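Journal club side-thread
Mid-discussion, someone asked how the predicted structure for our own chain would compare to the paper's figures. Pasting it here so we can look after the session.
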Amino acid sequence: MSDSADEPRDPATGLPRYRTEPVSFTRRGGRLGERQQRVWDQLADDMVLDVPQGGPSTSVHPDYRFDPEAVFGRRAPLVVEIGSGYGEALSHAATEHPEWDFLGIEVYLPAVAQTLLHVRREGLTNLRLAVANAPEMLTTAIAPGSLHELRIWFPDPWHKTRHHKRRLITDAFAKIAAQALPPGGVWRAATDWADYGDQIAEVIARSEDFDGGRSERFAGRPVTRFETKGLKVGRDIHDFTAVRRP
């Protein structure tokens, strides 16, 4: 393994150009359709956070801090959804709870643009988006103990055994989630892959920071197109709820 001092660095930031740990996503083509481009041009400046990169694409500069009170213009419970996709669940939640603020973290630009279409159609003002690596956002950009809830719906299962190391929900991630949530804060998750469900259950059970595990379906999550695809091929949906310990 090369010494970190020898890694290629961005001349503007002085930070490494490449990550040393695998991420839970792959960047797909990010070309926007005409309608998506129009809504992006109309709303992105106000609704998509300007997150400075810390080197690689979607990285988060370690000096960046997300200030929800400044962004939303009020102090309210903050819910973060990781992998918010096309925004179906996120926009539904923001509509159902106008008294809360919501931040969706998603790396696929067309999906972010599609979420902006929901924002425009519903007239939502309590929702923002970040194109960023979620663990970095939770570790450095979001103040410890500042979340009301953390939600992860159907993360990439990386179903091949050799790719399991890229799964988002691990023991290490549980520590990151615990840092972001206060005592009593809630972490919700769902997957349609049975072995990933087993892994999530084991992560929660091993954690010294959370109580909980498998649970009934969360009533606040609508059935999205992604979940529908899993149901059509006969997959069961596995829900989880974990509460941050004191």
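Post-session note: The CA atoms of residues 52 and 235 lie 39 Å apart.
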